[in-house]
Amino acid sequence: MNDCRLKYRIMLTNLSDEITKRNVCLDMLKVASADFVNIKTELQKAINPFAIFMLLDTAGHMSQNNLILLIAIIQLLGLTYLKDVIIRSGFEYTENVDTKSVFSLFRRRVISIGKELSDDQLNKISGVYQVPNENCTNQWRLLQYLQDNKTFNNNDELMEFIATVGSVGVIIGWYECNKSTCPYINTFLKI
Questions:
Q1: Three-state SS string across 110-171, please?
Q2: CA 134 to chain centre
C-alpha cells in the first residue's frame, strides 16, 4: 500500500471514529450513500462508517484523489465538523461542493424527510406501512426499510408516499399539496 493510500485509509478511520464518538446515526450515512454502492446488502450489513466509506471506495465513487462524494455527504448531512479531520489528515477540503450535482433530487428529498421526521411521525408512518419494530428504531432505518421494500424508489413514488402519510397527519414541512386539484400535484419548497 503506497503512502497516499495509507494516509487516506487513516483519514477514513479517523472520520469513522469521530462520527462514532459524536453518536451520528449510522443509518443516516447508509441512506445518503445508497445510490453509490454496488451491492445494497453490503451497505445494510455495514457496522461502522469506515465500512460504508470502503464500499464507496470499492464502487469507484471515492478515492484518495477524489473526495468530492465524501465532502458532499458531510455537507448534505450537516457534519461539517468533519472538515477538520480531513484537513488534519493532509487532504484538501473543498468548501463549495455542489450537492445538487452529486446527489439526485430524489436522494436529497429522502434526506430532507429524514432530517425532519419526529418520533410521533415515525410511529404513524410505521403503522401505515406495517413496518416491523426492528426497522422503526429511527427515521433513517425506517426510510431505508421503505425504500428497500419498494415503497418508494423514485420521485413519483416518493410523492405518493408523502400524500399517503399526509392522509394520517404526517405533514412533511417542505411539501405543499394543492388538494383542490390532485393530491399528487406537489411543489417542493426546499431542496
A1: HHHHHHHCCHHHHHHHHHHCCCCHHHCCCHHHHHHHHHHCCCCCCHHHHHHHHHHHHCCCCC
A2: 19
In this predicted model, what pLDDT tens digit does every residue of 96-114 receive, in sequence order?
A: 899 999 999 999 999 999 9
Quick check: 92 and 98 in contact, CB under 8 A? no
- Taking each continuous run of H as one helix and of E as one strand, the counts in the chain are 11, 2
CA distance to 98, 101, 166, 169, per residue, from 160 (Å)? 28, 25, 10, 14
Closest C-alpha to 152, from 184, 179, 190: 184
Q: Letter for the amino acid at 155?
A: N
pTM: 0.87
Contact status, residue 30 vs residue 140, Cβ threshold 8 Å: yes
